[in-house]
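Board work, copied verbatim: Spermidine synthase
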Amino acid sequence: MAKFETIDTAIIPGQGSELRLLKRNDEFSIRIAGAPGELMNTRLHGSEDALAELACQRVADRPGARVLVGGLGMGFTLAAALKALGEDAEVVVAELVPGVVEWNRGPLGVAAGRPLDDPRTRVSVGDVGLLLRREPGGFDAIMLDVDNGPEGLTRRENDWLYSPRGLAAAQQALRPDGVLAVWSAGQDPAFTERLRRVGLLVEEVTVRAHRPGKGAKHRIWLAS
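↓ predict structure ↓
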């Protein structure tokens, strides 16, 4: 089998760690230099698709629905959101690493169908936490997939998003009857309780990393 080859690198702002984009035939992988394993792979995106599908199905019938995707990654959550929503929707995607945006506009984009080219897409380069605080009542749905989950952080600054203050900011950024969807690589009962303590009704859904019904079990919280 052919080996992965690094085709580009990008620095994570404020941290200095290096992200690497690797390719093997038509398969892409994103990894952190010097860390074991991989963050993302184009062959394993079933749970990223489900994150958008589960959230957007609750708001898809709203005229001019506006949703936020926290974390562009390989573009699969964004693509699934666009597929689930109407032609009058707007999908804002916040991505901290400028290089990841460029990868999705370049060689990586074909994997998810180039969702950045969709006229309903708006890109915000920067910390999704700042965007949440700038736009109270701005979104019908918020989907957060900025790390490996509340306790699986690769960037410590992301801890704020999953804290009571971060969750309260997300709640305030929602429109009436909006939904907050959070992706995680695994279960986290403490995070479930944290969501409830800020006054959110919580549903937990187990999804597979690869469809149909294969791969690791991931967790999605739907809070409203």
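The mean pLDDT is 91.
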